[in-house]
Amino acid sequence: HVADLAELSVLAMQSEKTGPYNGGSGKGTALHEIVDAIGAVTGQDVEPLYISGRAIDVQKSVLDVSRAKADFGWECEISLHDGIAATYEWMCRQEESG
User: What is the model's pTM?
Assistant: First the structure.
């Protein structure tokens, strides 16, 4: 979630540490878990259309966030479900005001 990444950015800027840091949960999430979370948040039945992968597609990607945790004590605080819910609520508010 952007709030988690903003917190990591502030911690990094306030420190004397340099170099790259990964910001994420440190856990992999399957596509079907994201689809299920979207369905749960919206209350709608989401039916994805799966197509064959391409040779260049990355099959699995999990960020190593141990450096951010070790240097700043930082961990992701907003869950996937809560992040999707907040985004969905924001989108609904935009639609209402638009």
Answer: 0.81
